[in-house]
Design a protein that fits this description.
Layout lengths: L2 H11 L1 E4 L11 E10 L6 E11 L3 E5 L19 E5 L2 E2 L11 E6 L2 H14 L6 E4 L5 H29 L2
Parallel strand pairs: 2-8
Antiparallel strand pairs: 1-8, 2-3, 3-6, 3-7, 4-5
Helix pairs in contact: 1-3
């Protein structure tokens, strides 16, 4: 499959069962701890459990160079915009090697649904409002993490823009 097909499939099949309850930070980077569940392809009926942390950079107003043309945005009649302002974040994903101490991978006895229920109860008992709980296709787990990071960025976007504009206006 191509990158586009894989990503589209992951987008369709990834479920965010529990996301970070609070928005991402705007004055610093945010760590997004996660638990990612995938049905095992080796041992049918078991579930692969990955725990890790996504590191998401603080939002920034980016000045993008002009590969695009915009018309009707200038008051002086010159339609060739020199730059475009955009709000964006960067996300760093854990390395593919699971020797990293921030990442742990286990295979648990039980179906995806039963392990999902167990993990939800565990997070509830710990009153953990920061750890995301995600499921998706095992062979596209890294795309599932991208989907999760994107959803958390989207959830924070309005607040990011408002906070950035407020800070720019303050002396």
């Amino acid at each position: 499959m191509s990158f586009d097909e894989d990503f589209t499939r992951a987008l369709q099949e990834t479920a965010i069962h529990r996301g970070r309850r609070s928005r991402l930070l705007t004055v610093g980077s945010t760590d997004l701890p996660y638990i990612l569940l995938n049905p095992s392809v080796v041992h049918r009926g078991d579930t692969v459990v990955r725990r890790g942390v996504l590191h998401v950079e603080e939002p920034a107003i980016l000045l993008m160079q002009r590969p695009h043309q915009f018309e009707g945005f200038n008051d002086d009649g010159d339609d060739a915009s020199e730059a475009l302002l955009a709000v964006g974040r960067l996300a760093r994903f854990p390395p593919a090697r699971y020797s990293n101490r921030d990442v742990q991978m286990d295979v648990m006895d039980g179906s995806l649904d039963s392990i999902l229920s167990k993990m939800e109860h565990q997070l509830d008992d710990l009153q953990d409002e920061l750890t995301g709980l995600i499921s998706g296709p095992v062979e596209l787990w890294y795309f599932s993490l991208m989907v999760y990071a994107g959803q958390m960025v989207k959830q924070s976007a309005t607040g990011d823009v408002n906070n950035l504009l407020r800070r720019l206006r303050e002396p």
